[in-house]
Specification:
Number of strands: 9
Order of helices and strands: EEEHEEHEHEEHHEH
Bound molecules: guanosine-5'-triphosphate, magnesium ion
Distance between the termini: 31 Å
Helix content: 25-40%
CATH superfamily: Spore Coat Polysaccharide Biosynthesis Protein SpsA, Chain A
Shape: globular
Radius of gyration: 15 Å
Strand order of the largest sheet: 5-4-1-6-8-7-9
Structural class: alpha/beta
CATH topology: Spore Coat Polysaccharide Biosynthesis Protein SpsA, Chain A
Number of helices: 6
Length: 187
């Protein structure tokens, strides 16, 4: 299974490349790769900068620039060699192999997209996406309808519930304040 990590955002809240900020002295991206490796070493990073060149995984640039995570997923799927794809954002340093396996194992074959849902929200950037949804993604980009939630509602999708106890694993860290809190509370 192809795994794609989206590293193409503007990091405007973090103000430095989000995938490379440190949690427990290790860049976020390396935490994520570590969680992924027991599942697949077929990893590609969707990034528009050279900041990730030190990592020995394939880097690909957004085919259509500035289309947000949806555009990143589009690029990931165009380059993917497998029908089924695990898509991850670069700002989830607490993600674990176990929870990713839970997603993969619960992905029903009669659904196209599978994403986690907790009590508050859906997590579209920890998800299973098939190559066959590429035309739907392209259409969304063409009409500039870039909201992930809107996109998901337009495809056959499965919401996989997660318990409150596991919620922290999904924490996405967007700002310096959130990063400081993470490093203070959880290290
Ligand atoms: N490839 C690609 N990934 C993107 C793009 N925009 C956002 N992402 C990724 O999508 C995930 C979630 O995006 P955001 O939380 O909005 O990240 P961001 O845009 O870098 O940060 P903000 O500027 O603070 O919103 C992160 O992994 C980003 O790297 C894009 O245009 N291209
Ligand atoms: Mg953003």
């Amino acid at each position: 299974m192809q795994v794609s990590i989206l590293c193409g955002g503007k990091s405007s809240r973090m103000q430095s490349e989000k995938g490379l900020v440190l949690y427990q002295n290790k860049p976020f991206i390396e935490h994520i790769i570590e969680a992924v490796l027991p599942i697949s070493s077929n990893i590609q990073l969707v990034t528009n900068t050279n900041d990730y060149d030190y990592l020995a995984y394939r880097k690909i640039k957004d085919i259509i620039a500035d289309k947000g995570p949806l555009g990143g997923i589009y690029t990931a799927l165009v380059h993917s060699e497998t029908e089924m794809n695990l898509i991850l954002s670069c700002d989830i340093p607490l993600i674990s192999t176990e929870i990713l396996l839970e997603l993969i194992e619960n992905h029903g074959t009669n659904f196209d997209v599978s994403v986690f849902k907790d009590n508050d929200r859906i997590h579209p950037l920890i998800g299973i996406y098939p190559k066959k949804i590429l035309p739907v993604l392209k259409e969304a980009i063409d009409v500039n309808e870039l909201k992930m939630m809107r996109f998901i509602s337009n495809v056959k999708h499965q919401l996989i519930p997660i318990t409150d106890a596991k919620r922290d694993l999904f924490k996405n860290i967007n700002s310096v304040a959130e990063l400081n809190e993470l490093n203070t509370n959880l290290s």
